[in-house]
Structures
1.
Amino acid sequence: MVQDIGEQLRAQGRRMTPQRQRVLDAVASLAHATPEDVVAAVARDGGAPLSPSTVYRALEALESLGAVGHTHLDHRAPTYHLADHADHVHLVCRGCGRVDQCERATAVQFEAAVLRSKGFVADVTHMAVHGWCSDCAKKR
Amino acid sequence: MVQDIGEQLRAQGRRMTPQRQRVLDAVASLAHATPEDVVAAVARDGGAPLSPSTVYRALEALESLGAVGHTHLDHRAPTYHLADHADHVHLVCRGCGRVDQCERATAVQFEAAVLRSKGFVADVTHMAVHGWCSDCAKKR
DNA sequence: TTGAATGCAAAAAATTTGCATATTG
DNA sequence: CAATATGCAAATTTTTTGCATTCAA
């Protein structure tokens, strides 16, 4: 998977570079990382720091390949993850800020209902669901 | 409803001002407005333009009262609406960008499932669901 | 070799903040 | 009159862009 991304890039006349590999590795190890997180992570991986623009462009390139995807946990920061780590819905607590997740399967009925009533093919994983986790819900 | 917001503000030692009223009116008439939209709308309502910071602060004040709420349709812009216009889920098309909506009721099973499995009290109206509208889905 | 990718610095875009002044209650 | 709200300008924060240089293929 991760190793043939270089070939996919080359197949499109694009290139695999050490920078892109480091960005990909950072996304893989962080699971949910903002561009800023990735910049910080690669700065810690032993190599020279990457400029933010390189990280933004690398994420864009990797996303256009389908190697990574992003989810919006809140308004201020897309978080990137490997494409194969995308099959869940994020639950962001308004109280404590914790991010939990649930199986995408939990939402299949909703997806089906939206498809039936609106013809809309929903991707419930792209933006997080906000609300109150069980602990915070109790306190209210 | 809208008219006793002044009293609610005063009850908290805060104030109702012409600026806040104009912001509230703009939110009411636009239905889904970004702060930028509100700035533009009040500039057209006959009065003097409001400075962006006044609009941001007015929206914050009105939201803290529960008079307005906001939804994230995409990553770059919260959209404000009257609190009583909040009961639907937004569906944003990745193809054409159109924003549709469906009844919150469509998601009750999902909300129930998340509550059951995670104890999480979900507010499905806060962030939009992305996907493909029927027209764009056909084209793929 | 040659065009895509990088790095830097400057530009944008979107909020936020400090502070003097104006206004509400 | 006292404290809150406004307006402006400057500061932040986050992301994008131009361009000369480097490097993958």
2.
Amino acid sequence: MRSEAARVAILQATASQLAARGWDQLTIEGIAAAAKVGKPTIYRWWPSKSALIADALGEGVLPVMAAPADSGDLRADLIAWLDPTLRLADDHDATALTRYLIAAAAEDAAVGERLDAANPATRLLAERLSQAQSRGELAASAPIELIGDAIIGAFVLRVLRRATYAPGDAAALVDTVLAAHVAPGAR
Amino acid sequence: MRSEAARVAILQATASQLAARGWDQLTIEGIAAAAKVGKPTIYRWWPSKSALIADALGEGVLPVMAAPADSGDLRADLIAWLDPTLRLADDHDATALTRYLIAAAAEDAAVGERLDAANPATRLLAERLSQAQSRGELAASAPIELIGDAIIGAFVLRVLRRATYAPGDAAALVDTVLAAHVAPGAR
Amino acid sequence: MRSEAARVAILQATASQLAARGWDQLTIEGIAAAAKVGKPTIYRWWPSKSALIADALGEGVLPVMAAPADSGDLRADLIAWLDPTLRLADDHDATALTRYLIAAAAEDAAVGERLDAANPATRLLAERLSQAQSRGELAASAPIELIGDAIIGAFVLRVLRRATYAPGDAAALVDTVLAAHVAPGAR
Amino acid sequence: MRSEAARVAILQATASQLAARGWDQLTIEGIAAAAKVGKPTIYRWWPSKSALIADALGEGVLPVMAAPADSGDLRADLIAWLDPTLRLADDHDATALTRYLIAAAAEDAAVGERLDAANPATRLLAERLSQAQSRGELAASAPIELIGDAIIGAFVLRVLRRATYAPGDAAALVDTVLAAHVAPGAR
DNA sequence: GATTAATCGAGACGGTACGTCCAGTCTTGGA
DNA sequence: TCCAAGACTGGACGTACCGTCTCGATTAATC
């Protein structure tokens, strides 16, 4: 019978080890030791490091990004949400976990899909956009998913590039991607 | 005196091993064997796997993406350039190298920077956009770099997500990102 | 729980590799391969090559020298035992293992002690001498250990020097060392 | 033309490195560095570590044992010479070089022969014995070489065994080996 | 006294083995 | 009965030396 306590301990250990040491340095042995569990217990239930991370993502053990606020002004909300995020990307330690997850996603399809499904950023952004759409703030024809991809993709790229932050970046990005779809009378 | 033959053989072996086995499975030992070189020769000159890849990128040993054509119609050119790329992203084998490079970039800052600098996609796209700008096809105020980030970032995200291709994706993405900046009379 | 099979295989591989290749050429890697064992298994239980040899000596895996016969005539028995041994010392291949063990003993105290304790030559010679002593063939005051050291030491020296054998050497050595201690009426 | 300065520096470095680190840890690279000489300069003139040591022995760069005194009383002289030597053998650091040379001799025939030829102990002991013989202190029939082998062999064995010193050992050994050959009226 | 050939130092090369870490499998003993 | 603990085979790690090889720089002997 599978021990729930062990399962949780393992996923939490996975998360903390990933945050602390990175994808490459993440070892099953280390996770087992941190979770006070035998290695075979891990191998019994998960086939690989990636599967562990995919599961840890699903479990919400890995940290979470806040949702954009909903003040009624989509543009302002998105900028307010994006700006500190881009600023944070300057700090390579703060984005370390992001990068580790990107690496994991690049290596393993399951992590990629799970990361996408579990990632609050993607989901919450989509929700905010579709809210705006239902209110008429955004054109009905606006391709919500693509807009999300463009914004988050640009963020990912900046993280990978270790880009430096400049004030106005967030506004420029939001405007670039959003401008074409703002409903005529919305402003 | 450093042996140029060894240097080239090592970088080429790095590229071919990376393409064949992926970032995680990439071993210095394997590279050394493939390059018919002693391990210490590699360690003498490169501190890590990442440094090898960064160098291989600089050397142009890793494959290259074509430039968008310049027919005079920016939108059409970008779509023609982007569409097959997105379609290709359906094929997980074809994008494997892309994903390996993303993983490497996520793990190592040097690779990230080099990948950005050496990546023809980023550069060529920027050139095409700035050409369009100088012709008045694109608004003078258009943030070329951000537009590039949004497009390529969306592509990266789809590769990570193993998204499936749908006809029209390329056009939608280009329109989303570009629409706000097309010069008034340009269409 | 330690694997007995692995332990024995490793000690036997050590012995055969030592005999075949010598102390200097003895590699842990080679032993591991010959014993079909992982290197870490060796390092888990033995800190060094020397410790392996010391253990192999204790296990009796390394070859053994016959005891001197006991015909009642000490001098004749010792000569009969020593003569073929000295003759053999002419053959550098036959004494190779002896030399390897000397080298190992010189490098490592544990091997030295174990070699002394496990070496049947020392022990059997001492037993034969003390038998002779209890029978009155040898003076009660005879320093058995020193006599043993002198005989075996001379042998070791000849092996190191790659001395050539001459008939009568054995008798001369036995007489030199023993004469002073033969009990007056024993002959 | 061969550089004499380099030759001497190399042999001295060999000697000091051997004394300092032992036979096993003796590296050509270390010798070259200590002698401020390129490795090929060593390989040009000596085929192996052993050859270096054999040469260093011939050069007298390696330390030397004193001759037994000649007071006219052979037994007393030998004991006086042997006793401090055996006592010294208790100190494992002091005998380290002896053991290293034994190891080298065991591994390499050339060193064995050279060690024997160059070793003052063997030679000086033989000289002292033959002096005693010519004076009639020792029987004309005494096998000088064997007596030497027995004494020095016993010493070597004690060094290998890391035996502890007991007062009287020297006297007992000398008596054991010598008693049979002291000329009747000599005492 | 200049030229030329040998030898020098330095150190990179292809390799082998080192001793370590971790992977993933298997076995055992205690809960 | 299940699981922690941990030993097992195996393979890659990054390092130390091996013995060989090119390099220029420096001598030493010949011309």
